[in-house]
Structures are given as structure tokens and as C-alpha cells.
# Entry
Amino acid sequence: MADKAIEVLLDERRSFPPPKGFKKSAHVRNASVFNTARKNPQAFWAKAAKELHWFKPWKKVLEWNSPWAKWFVGGKLNASYNCLDRHVNSGRKNKAAIIWEGEPGDGRVLTYRDVWREVNKFANVLKKLGVKKGDRVCLYMGMIPELVIAMHACNRIGAPHSVVFGGFSAESLRDRINDAQAKVLVTADGGYRRGTTVPLKKNADEALADAPSIENVVVVKRVGAESGAQMKDGRDHWWEDLMADAALWCEPEKMDSEDMLYILYTSGTTGKPKGIVHTTGGYLTGVTLANKWIFDMKEDDIFWCAADIGWVTGHTHIVYGPMANGVTQVMYEGTPDWPDRGRLWRIVEKYGVTIFHTAPTAIRTFMRWGTEYPGEHNLKSLRLLGTVGEPINPEAWVWYHKYIGGGRCPVMDTWWQTETGHPLITPLPGLTKLKPGSATMPFPGIEADVVDEKGQSVPKGGGGYLVLTKPWPAMMRTIYGDPDRFVQTYWSRFPGKYFTGDGCKRDKDGYYWLLGRVDDVMNVAGHRISTMEVESALVDHSSVAEAAVIGKAHEIKGQAICAFVSLKMGIDGSAALVDELKAHVAKKIGPIARPDEILYAAELPKTRSGKIMRRLLRDIADGRAMGDTTTLADPAVVAKLKEQYEEE
Ligand code: PRX
# Structure
């Protein structure tokens, strides 16, 4: 975050106590829960786990050999059983599970029984294709109900899913398939986005040219002939054909609490994405409780998390949390501005959405579009709002509260990560006095701290690095296939503590103010992208000798991708080449990683040991006074770059 933004954030003095209705009827109304959880975290989490259905109870709540955790040791359960069978067997069978809106205006409503039936059938399809417990299944799809069905079908038979965001390129998909050694790929012929179609199957074919572990591909027909999808005999199958004669019942696999539930890839500080591993019992316990308490989920709520299932938010707040709690939710395909900028608010009004969850980038975009769009719709059904993914500036928070929430809906600013499984720093709507821009306090049962370079706790009022000091059930267990990197990345900087990679300040009341990443990870419109990934994509282009990428402060997206590039001898830095390089990165990684700015540099500023000084590049891009330049090999390089940048 830019210095000025941090100052504004920390100067924020407005506060919002819990509305009366929430104080009276929220799931959590008594602050003693924090103490109870602190005194005996294992008893606290065990009580939460007991809300789920277990085929076999656990013998031990926690086995902790830092950093290796095992929760609910010896317990057996099944995630799809908990998210579906439990509801089908207890009076919710005719309740709408998913109200789906497709982009071209089509829609479907699936009851819990509908989802349960389709999940059973697809689980049988996967089995028939040879998928066994422990085999990985890759899912590369848009936001259609079949994605949710496929995920639950995977967990029903104990096959961990690895969902790859539909906006990722063929190469990104290939790398993720290969890392997980997935056996089956489930995709769609295409998906709708802003009036055009995304060629999912075409990308998948490109990826599969070099992904030999995939034996079978299942393709949902979403777009039809327009997609131009080709089917390869023997390997590719239409979803509808396989489902036509699939048996209706599939016995849920009795999974060990510590069996892998899924892998989800996220960016780290190196170019290679990390496969974050979540396990069954701990993850499900954490997300069930967190969804229920933070969003105050009740029987008649209509919940809508407007995230994509390709990210962890969609896993936790669409597929697992709300479904474990048996609520009705809205799911949509496409974007908020198509066919027009009133789309989301029309959906809220149409279905009477009561809880709405989105990201700060979206809120800032709505703000820029103006109040006329939400103003045209009746949003009175809303009772609670959520935000996640990036620091939210107080102005955006207050706008959201006022114009979307009508001043009556508490705003839950939820801080967490792919690795943490569910929100860890977050308000509770019946208890927490909200301060716009602060994610407030740790969730019950979570122990966090803000520490300095040496790992010493920083007193209230000070800033440093956010760490987590005690294990929690939904924490990641490892990086798939790379346990050393798990230890190195998260547990080595401050031994015994989980390092989040986020800067944080605690105010005198103990509120946490997240300040953005302190490592080489960017947060662009809520998407986590590593500087190294973009740099590798740039140097992969035949004209580029060297590249340095930074996240530059951006009014709407939080950060924008800014690249400094030096070209190979004899190559001219033309405007056309800038466009070509941007397109090259988009092709290599996906459109979300397309640089906003590319600047040619004769040389990049380096330390005497040859390390690129990104900090100085950030200063240049954000127009700040230059930080310490004494370690530079050649200070003239950076002075020249600054001059050049200011001219452009
Ligand atoms: O920097 C933090 C930021 O998003 C990072 C995690 O990204 P990802 O794993 O993609 O998960 C995003 C959705 C959970 C964090 O390290 N972040 C997430 N939520 C917030 C946030 N920063 C500030 N405030 C938040 N509420």
C-alpha cells in the first residue's frame, strides 16, 4: 500500500457498533466466546467439529509437531455427506441450494436434493473413468453449477480436486495439472464473459498436449457450436452423455479427517505456483463455523458470495461453508457490468439476497460508476455485507455501508489467505464495533500477533508483520509435493510462528489494520500474482533481456502491474512492442496478469551482489522520494530511470 493510503487508513476514527437486531439475534452475542476459546482452544474446536456428521469420532483433537498439524485424529467423515446428505435427510431436501444466473440471461434453481443427485451421479461417472480415492482431478470451468457438482463428486469418492481458475491460460493450466499429476480433467466447451465466450476446451487441448497424466476429459456443453470445441476420440467425453446412464447412488467414502480434501494453487514469491493442501476434517470444521458466525447464516438467508470458485473465497464461501450450513445461495456467471452496470443489484432485488460478499476492487468500481445503479433497485433485503481479498480504504467501506447496505448492514472486512482456509481476522456482526478499513480482531480460537524483524511482539500502536502463533483446524497442511517449501515459506522466518507475508498495524484498542504484502507478491484487483511469475513470462519473450516487476498503487485495483524491461542488444523499444509484451504475458499466465505499464530501461537498478532493487522501482512508480540507495552498484541507473519515468 502507498504511504499516503496507509496514513489515511490509520487516521480513520469513525466506528460503527453492532446494529440492535444483530446484538439481539446473531449467532454470537456473548464476548465470553473469545476467552472460552483462548482458555481451551481444543475444546472450542472440538465443539465446532461436533456440529458435523462423523462416521467415526476422533480419538484426539490435535497432534501438533510444529509445523505439522493433525486435527481430529482418527475421525472419519465425508465432505459431500456433510454438505448434502445431511440436509437431504433432515427436511432441507426441497430447499434451494443454488440459484444460478447465467450471463446470457438463462437461469437454474437446484434444490439440495437436485445437487445431491447430480453429485452422486457424477461421482459414479468419475469412478467409471477409473478415479480412485487419492487420485487428483483437475477442474477448469466457468461459474456453472456443474463446477460445484464436480467438486462435491470428487470429495464424495475421496479424490482431491484441483480447481484452476477459468481465466488462466493453457500454460498455467498445464503446469498445475502436471504438478498435481491429475488423472481426469473436467472442463466446459466454453464460458460466457462480457458478451463473448472464453474458449475453455481449446485452452484445455493446448494444455493437454503436454500433460500426460490426464487419461480422460469430461466436457460440459455450455456454449455449444460457437465454442468451436473439438472432441478427441477415446479421451474426451460429453458430461451429459456420461451422466445419462450414471447410477443414482454413490456410497460416500469414509475419509480420514487428515485425508486431503483439495489442492488449490496460489502464487508465492517464486515463479512456481504453490499447491496449497487442505484436509477434510479440519477444513470443514473451520469453514462451517466461520461462515455461520461471520455471516450470521440463518435458515432463511439468501447468501451471495460474488467471487469465482477458481479462488479460495469461492471454495470456502460458495462450495463448502454455505453448503455445510444448508443455506440457499446465489451463484452467477459473467461480470458485474454485463449486460449493464446494474446487474448485481438487479440480482439482489430479484432473489431478495440477504447477505452479500465481494472484494474492495469491486466496491471501488461500483463507487466510480456512481449511486444511480444501486439506486435503481430495491436492496432492502440485504442485512449483512462482506469484503475480502485486499485492504479496503475507509471511503470505499463507508460507501458500501451507506449505498449498498442502506446504513443498516454491518460490513465484515475479512482477512485471510488461501493457506488459512477461512477468515482469521474478522468482525463478528453481533459483537464487534466496526472501524472502516480495519479487519478488526482475530476470530475466536485464533491467536495472532504483530511482530518486528526479530519476531518480537510489537506493542499496541505499532506495526510489523502479521503472524499466527497457534495451530487452527483449517490451516494448510503442506505444499503439494514440496514439504520443504512449506516449512521454508511459512515457518522459517519466525520459528514456531506462521508467517503470513502481510504487514499489519495494531491500534491502541487492539484492532488489526492490514497493510498489504511485504514480500514479492502483488495483489491486483484481489488477485494474488507473483512478481517473479510475470518477470519469467516477460523474459520468455525473445526481445527481453531482463525484467523487474512491481505492484504500483492503483486507485481501483489496489495495485497495478508495472514492469521495467531491458531489451536485448539491437532491439528497439517501440510502442508496438509494449503491446506485444503485454499480450505475451496474458497468453503465458492469463489476462489477470497483463501488465498495466511497461517501461523500457537501459539497465535495472541492482545491488552490488546483483539483486534487483524492486523497492526503488516501487518508489519511482509511486512517485515517492527515493529510499536508501547506498547499496546500489550504480546509483546513476536509478536516477536515470526516475527521470525517464517522470517524463513519460
Ligand atoms: O495480503 C492479504 C490479502 O490477500 C492475501 C491472500 O490472498 P489469497 O490467498 O488469494 O486469498 C484471498 C482471499 C482470502 C493476503 O495475504 N487480503 C485478503 N483479505 C484481506 C487482505 N488484505 C487486507 N484485508 C483483507 N480483508
User: Anything to note?
Assistant: DSSP finds 21 helices and 30 strands in the chain. The mean pLDDT is 95. Residues 266, 311-313, 388-391, 413-418, 439, 500-502, 514, 516-517, 523, 528 surround adenosine-5'-monophosphate-propyl ester (CB under 6 Å).
